[in-house]
Amino acid sequence: MKHLDEIRLILSNNALDILAINESKIDNQISNNEIHIDGFNIIRKDRNRFGGGVVLYVRQNISFSDRIDLIPDELEMVCIELSLPYNKSLLISTWYRPPNSLMNIFDYWASFLAKCDNEDKKLILIGDLNCDVSKTIPDPRT
């Protein structure tokens, strides 16, 4: 993964518990050991070395579960559920949408959001949508 040494420095010099990376540009030929950072767990969804992919680094002392069950196969996304005090939970997800993907990919994203809503848990969304969704008609060229 490009810039891995810089990522290691950022995580060692800052009090970050979770780091999301979009466009990780790694594939299944790269093992977790190769991108391991001491003190962190890795959750990832790869595409290839030429683009795409997402990674979450989660500090090892944080209790979480991988919520792959919420994610449509069509999305380059990872989602975790953090266990918080007082039996509370928090979903954290990061999504990468390639700039050349069709706009109907947002239908799959809406499906993901509906599943999260049914969980009745707070959700933090992180990502690179490559689209200006603030416009009435989203512009995929941004």
Describe the structure in your own words.
There is one protein chain. The protein is α+β, with helices and mostly antiparallel strands and 142 residues long. It has two helices and seven strands, in the order αββββββαβ. The strands form two sheets. A four-stranded mixed sheet has the order 4-5-6-7, with no helix packed on it.
What is the topological layout?
Elements: H1 4-13, E1 18-22, E2 40-45, E3 54-59, E4 64-66, E5 76-84, E6 88-96, H2 105-119, E7 122-128
Parallel strand pairs: 6-7
Antiparallel strand pairs: 1-3, 2-3, 4-5, 5-6
GO molecular function, one term: catalytic activity
Pfam families: Exo_endo_phos
InterPro entries: Endo/exonu/phosph_ase_sf, Endo/exonuclease/phosphatase
Widest beta sheet: strand line-up: 4-5-6-7
Q: How much helix, percentage-wise, in residues?
A: 10-25%
Number of separate strands: 7
Q: Could you say what the CATH topology is called?
A: Deoxyribonuclease I, Chain A
Major beta sheet, specifics?
4 strands, mixed
Protein name: Transposon Ty3-G Gag-Pol poly
Pfam families: Exo_endo_phos (PF03372)
GO molecular function: catalytic activity
Domain Endonuclease/exonuclease/phosphatase: 4-133
